[in-house]
Structure formats: C-alpha cells, structure tokens
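Quick one before lunch.
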Amino acid sequence: MKLAIGNDHTAIELKNEILKHLEDRGIEVVNVGTDTPERFHYPVAGYKVAKLVAAGEVDGGVLICGTGVGISLAANKVQGIRACVCSEPYTAKLSKMHNNSNIIAFGARVVGAELAKMIVDAWVDAEFEGGRHQTRVDMIMEIEQTQHLQEAEQ
Ligand code: RB5
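Model of the D-ribose complex:
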C-alpha cells in the first residue's frame, strides 16, 4: 500500500508520528506537507494529496491541519475525492466501509497522537463494502460531476 500525507504548520509533529507509524506498518508514504514551522496554507497540502489520490498515484491520503476541516474541504474540491474528517476510529472505519473515503483527515488540535494512530489504523484496515453503499456513493459522484441529482429532481 502507498499513501500520501499532507499537513499545515499546526500539524508537523503529529504528521511525523503518523508517518513513522505507517512506515512501521510497512506502508510507503509520500510526504507533501510542510516540515517547517512557518505559516503554511492548508489548501496547498489538501490539493497536493488529493491530486495524487485522484490520479491513482497512491492508494489513499492522510490530511492533518488544526481541525482537519479546512484541509479536507480543499481536498474535496478535486474531482473523485471523498475526504472525511474523523475524530474517532468508528467513523473512520465506516467512512471507508460505507462512503468509500479515499482520504482520512483529522485535527492536530483535536486528537492526540495515540488516538490519531487508532483512527488511521481503523481507516487503513477497513474495506469498502460496495452493494447498496455503492449506489449512494455513485449519487454523491453524480452531484460532483453534473451538479444535479436525478433521484432528487423527479
Ligand atoms: C490554522 O490556524 C488553522 O486554521 C488550520 O490548521 C485548520 O484548522 C483549518 O481548518
């Protein structure tokens, strides 16, 4: 498995912990986040990780800013991206199983390192269930691609 990771200036320490944790698990990680304490605009990291995921160059992405919100909002503007902010492992797992999330995001000001590792592990180890969930994910992508949702407009 190969993942991309990105972060802003609020999340350097946590990013490094998660990066090491993933590598210890045998996962290859491409780091496109900042590693210096100067202010860094989170949309840059969100965009870079999202582009790698959308292009299929990595199998998924991890994004960390202060809350996980801004960086995931930026990533979700890239076509094909489903970035989910999760502050606990249950939602992280279900975001993959039901929503086929391809990026997990969380906040360095919200979760500690040990909880963040559990969130990432739950997400990495989960698999999309497909079936009825595929129908709903397809509807989300229909909105993205067409700015319409046929089923809602009948
Ligand atoms: C930076 O101060 C902060 O706004 C950012 O890390 C993030 O929390 C935004 O959503």
